[in-house]
Amino acid sequence: MVEFETLKTEEIKFGRNNFIEIAKKKAIAEDGENEFISISRGFFLPDGSKRYKRSIAIPNEQKLRDEIAKTIKEI
Questions:
Q1: What's the CA gap between 68 and 74, in Å, rounded?
Q2: For position 48, what pLDDT does the model report?
Q3: pLDDT at residue 10, rounded to an integer
Q4: C-alpha distance from residue 6 to each of 17, 40, 45, 53 (Å)
Q5: Which fold has domain 3-74?
Q6: Nearest to 65 by CA among 38, 26, 33, 29
Q7: Any idea where the domains of the chain sit in the sequence?
Q8: How far out from the chain centre does Cα 11 lie?
Q9: pLDDT tens digits for the chain (75 residues)?
């Protein structure tokens, strides 16, 4: 069984009721732990709760994070 722990979360709101959530998370299993970055897109329901559409997880490696950020800025 794997448990997930959210270490830090930032939210970027856009459009009428959309958001992108960037979170640093940790997967905890019997054989060890693994930190990763989760990028999720979602929207707010009329009652203010969140609904997630899709997400992607990337390894929490500084070099990879820097390369992704650089590419996003250049695109």
A1: 10
A2: 92
A3: 97
A4: 23, 13, 22, 19
A5: Nuclear Transport Factor 2; Chain: A, (3.10.450)
A6: 38
A7: 3-74
A8: 9
A9: 999 999 999 999 999 999 999 999 999 999 999 999 999 999 999 999 999 999 999 999 999 999 999 999 999
Q: Per the structure block, which two tokens stand in for 74?
A: 């250049």
Q: Are strands 18-29 and 3-14 parallel, antiparallel or unpaired?
A: antiparallel
The answer to whether 11 and 20 are in contact (CB under 8 A) is: yes
- On the CB side of 57, CA atoms within 13 Å amount to 10
Helix or strand run (H / E) with residue 25: strand 18-29
Its pTM stands at: 0.84
